[in-house]
Amino acid sequence: MKEKDYRPRLIDEQVDFYLSTFGAVSLEGPKWCGKTRTCLRHAKSAFMLDDPSDNFANRELARIDVGQALAGEVPHLIDEWQEVPSVWDAVRHAVDESSAPGRWLLTGSATPLPKKTAHSGTGRIGRLRMRTMSLFESGDSTGEVSLSEVCAGRDIGVHRVARPELDEIIALVLRGGWPGVLGKSVDQARAVAREYIENVVESDINRLDDVVRDPVKVRKCLRSLARNESTTASDETIRRDTAGDDGSELSINTVATYLGAFRRLHLLDDMEPFSPFLRSPARIKQASKRHLCDPSLAASLLGATPKMLLRDLRTFGFLFEAMAERDLRVYADALGAALYHYQDYADREIDAVIQFPDGAWGAFEVKLGMAQVDEAAANLVDLASAFSKNPPRSLAVVVGLAGAAYRRPDGVYVLPLTALGPK
Length: 423
What we know:
single chain; alpha/beta; Rossmann fold; 2 domains; seven-stranded mixed beta sheet; 16 helices
């Protein structure tokens, strides 16, 4: 079932590997990030549960006889399985009955409540998280600078690259990594982001569990998350941030409930804190760094336009950091690594940490312009000295407005985001 004009995704290789390993593979991620098209690339048949044909006949058929959703040449795709949660248990049971790998692909844009499924699928269903497109996947990064080589601490030489203009970087943030907006203007992409948020507020969040939530409160919570993008703002900070001029504000329980719903919709992609030691006694802050699933959503919730961001580079810096860390996470996933952030009680921070399964790790700072590189590099070198028992294998500054990739005399890499790729 080859999709026409399919733009390859880095997760394709992981999907193939998981299909050779597990009886079924679940590809999860925010709505419209490209899950269905990617799975169709790997599937030989499909059953689409969100197909509106004949008044959603497929959905009703699966509810009456769930086996109908599982029937088809393998690998068989069941798209948006959460529309009929019993599909999950049926697939899990079918995997138990056969040792053959790679029989089903599942996509999901939302995670049902645990009570909707009887079994987690552990050992039977491999789960992969898909994100919006990195700049390398969308064709906006040449990919000539290998993150894999950087993380290994190897010499990368000097790569002269085209230095983007500030308005081009702003346009990339406002456009986001949605496959459906490639080739559209910035104004068109901004309109898509606005409608995406409206659908979340007015529809998607209520369909999760048939609980009607106040759209005003939902929007307040989302706007607070946008204002706190790329920070370690606590739930309490978000609660205070939602206070209105009339003194009204959300309760901490309401904030927690809404954040849980956003996670189940895969709208949040927070970065967990990093510790370089398995049983570290260091007093490391355990707050996650806040990220919406795509920087375009944060920009839209802030009402940002290109002119506004040109006048407010501090705010744009947080949005650029979000885009860079989205890309680093997509590349880390492709390399079998994980992305974290570091913050301790001595006020030392690392924007992003890539850690491999063997414990090796690299520290990355994200900066918009070259004028910030010297300070960022000095901070990385100073902080690396505090990890004498398990030092980072590489130190790097990822830059938006840069015309070359190279390694400085102090050992710190300078990496233009628009030239970075995984391998």
